[in-house]
Design a protein that fits this description.
- About 14% of the residues have low confidence.
- The strands form two sheets. This protein has an eight-stranded mixed β-sheet with strand order 1-4-5-6-7-8-10-9, with helices on both faces. The protein has a two-stranded antiparallel ribbon with strand order 2-3.
- The protein has one domain: Gcn5-related N-acetyltransferase (GNAT) (Aminopeptidase, 3-Layer(aba) Sandwich), CATH 3.40.630.
- The chain is α+β, with helices and mostly antiparallel strands.
- The chain contains six helices and ten strands; from the N terminus they run E-H-E-E-E-H-H-E-E-E-H-E-H-E-E-H.
- The structure holds coenzyme A.
- The site of coenzyme A has 24 residues, from strand 7, helix 4, strand 8 and helix 5.
């Protein structure tokens, strides 16, 4: 998570786009939940069929990613304030609604409950220098504690990484008269192959979480956070998003 935000907002928000997610696809090695019969006589949990055999239950909650809009901005603020001990500015919440980030910045809903969010920006997007390569910067990634360890954080991050590598043009913006004619088309970004995130020193869970997705700790920045202790941040960098996603470097599967 970053302490501050510097990108200037250029336009307002695009519409909401929801996409159902298959959690199995993001869970990877994790599979079904097994419930054993408690007493072995076929009458307890798992013994509903009277056989006492092991029963496998696979809960399938609906999980969706939804674009950020002015209408759900309050939900994003609430989630961030509950999970992250940093108060983000009005500018932060305006910038993350930038339509060019529509495919990246998402809320995640679990059984129709908003339980997490990911906010990013791009740095050096127009740069061709090796020292300052175009980079996806993860500003905030938050999942409510009761909903963690189910692959929701991973789903948010994978969506951001995939969208950075394979950008899609957002829907055209309506002109001020709202009638649809002459809408402004936002040009798709170029593919970005590098990502980074700041993790507070001592937040080993988040560090491991990023490492599992191909990020490496590169340096520790002292006094990165001004309003929380410890103040240091570990800079986590993924130099090859395609590899992290298991894709060939040219983007083919
Ligand atoms: C970091 C954070 C977003 C991760 O969210 P999450 O939803 O728990 O993430 P995931 O479920 O995808 O992965 C978390 C762990 O659960 C494990 N996991 C994922 N699906 C699982 C499943 N079905 N069953 C069991 N474990 C599972 C993952 O392997 C991972 O383990 P690891 O930490 O050893 O790598 C969340 O912990 C959080 O909001 N933390 C506070 C804010 C923060 O630190 N943000 C990061 C800095 S910006």
């Amino acid at each position: 998570m970053v302490a501050t935000s510097t990108t200037a907002a250029t336009y307002s928000t695009a519409g909401t786009v929801s996409s159902p997610l298959d959690l199995d696809a993001v869970r990877g090695e994790y599979s079904a939940v097994s419930l054993e019969n408690g007493n072995g006589d076929g009458t307890g949990i798992g013994g509903a069929n009277g056989t006492g055999k092991r029963r496998t239950v696979r809960p399938k909650p609906k999980v969706t990613l939804t674009s950020l809009t002015v209408n759900n901005s309050g939900t994003l603020r609430k989630l961030n304030s509950v999970v992250i001990p940093i108060v983000y500015s009005e500018k932060f919440y305006k910038d993350v609604l930038d339509p060019s980030l529509d495919d990246i910045n998402k809320l995640i809903y679990y059984a129709d409950i908003p339980v997490g969010a990911c906010c990013c920006r791009f740095e050096n997007l127009a740069s061709s220098s090796k020292e300052k390569p175009p980079t996806l910067v993860i500003l905030t990634l938050a999942v409510l504690a009761p909903y963690r360890s189910q692959g929701l954080g991973r789903a948010l991050l994978l969506n951001a990484l995939r969208s950075a590598l394979h950008p899609t043009a957002p829907p055209p913006l309506l002109p001020p008269d709202g009638k649809g004619k002459g809408g402004i088309t936002v040009v798709a970004r170029k593919a970005v192959t590098r990502a980074m995130a700041h993790v507070q020193v001592g937040n080993e869970d988040a560090k491991r979480f990023y490492e599992r997705l191909g990020f490496k700790a590169t340096e520790t920045i002292d006094d990165y956070y001004s309003k929380m202790e410890p103040r240091g941040a570990v800079l986590m960098v993924c130099d090859d998003i395609a590899s992290a996603l298991g894709e060939a470097p040219n983007g083919s599967a």
